[in-house]
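User:
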Amino acid sequence: MSKFDHITLAFFDLPWLPIKFRVQFKLLLIVYKSLHNQAPDYINDLLSLKTESNYSLRSSGQFLLSVPRVNCTTFGGRAFAQAAPVLWNSLPL
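Assistant: Predicted structure:
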C-alpha cells in the first residue's frame, strides 16, 4: 500500500469489530459483570432480574432481565437501563 491509498482497504485487514457490534459487546460485558457482582453499584441498580411467575415456564430457569418501560421513544430505547436488558435477553442460550 502506498501512502495515497484509501484507508478503507486497510480496515478489512484489521481484526476490529464494526462500531455497532463493539458497542453491543461493551454493553453485554457490563451486564455480565453486573450479574457477577463485578460492576459498580450504580450499574447494578439499573439492572434487575425478571421476577418469577406462578407458572412453570421454560424461561424461568434463565437469567433474564426485566425491561423497564420507556417514556421517551427517541432516546429512551438507547438508555443503558433499556438497551442492556433487551440485548441480554436476545442472546441465545
